[in-house]
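Changelog note: in this version the structure field was regenerated for every chain. One regenerated record is shown below for reference.
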Amino acid sequence: MANKKGSRQLTWTDRISIEALKKAGHSVIEIAEQLGVHRSTIYNELKRGEYMHRNSDYTETLSYSPNKAQMKAEENLKARGTQLKIGNDIAYANYIEDKIVNEDYSPAAVLGELKAQGKEGDFSVTVCVTTLYSYIDKGIFLKLSNKNLPVKKNKKRNYKKVQRQQKRAAAGESIDKRPKEIDTREEFGNWEMDSVLGKRGKSKNTLLVLTERKTRNEIIFKLPDHTDEAVVAALDRLERKWGADMFKRVFKTITVDNGSEFADVEGLQRSIINEGEKRTKVYYCHPYSSWERGTNEVTNKMIRRKIPKGTNFDDRTEEEVESIENWINGYPRKIHGYHSAGELFEEEVKQLA
């Protein structure tokens, strides 16, 4: 029976694999099976990259070069410019590939950022998001495929909000008493705070995530454990970094859930610098009401793109966590016209100075 495989374009990584598998003595059928393509794709690829290799004894052997195959593939893409708009500008294709493959951008984020920063004119062509997704799906790119894309979101479902019986009384004031203007996100300095747990039973360390509601800017701490002492210590550290006066202006309110790590409301609110003074106001969500911290929930999904569920946070360094924070804050957001949360946050802080 014929070996039926899906049709797709080979990537640079595929070509490196083909070279290694061929040198290891694997047959065309075995290589095709390994890469999940039809054998004819491998036959054509070997022909595309074939060259005569001179051995040390001056004999010649017909070999395969992934570099030669890649160059020919790029030439073919260029030649198809009349059918494929993106084929007219290889630099544009490479830019898109780099942003999605190496910086984990979505197709919409790449194109949106180019437009927001006025860089579309740097290239001779542009494509729309729908066309870009189509190119990726058809395997037009050399290094980019569907596996590099963020997981597609399912259609949002509407769930009835059911108030369950509260297991434990909130440590401080309810979100019901939070000023209504905070809901509109028009005022800067109102935050949501949450913790992200690592591998159950294995990871002692956790992540503490603070999200500013207006700009969506993130601050992420790696904590030694999932305790209220660790959370208070993180806020103490943050206050020392910003200074008592600036902290009060940047962190006006913080909204949390009823997790035990947020139980020390006095510790969260009191200043570590100015004894007897409060540094912020903490509000508590209703039990089982994660939508009341919607900004946190969205950002936690971005964190999971970098650190999947089941990850042992004990193995992650402070530098890795900081890198994730920088990636999130530098990511172009549709809600901000494809400017980043970091850009907007810096502008807001400058106005306070």
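Spot check on this record: The chain has 13 helices and ten strands. The first helix runs from residue 12 to 23.
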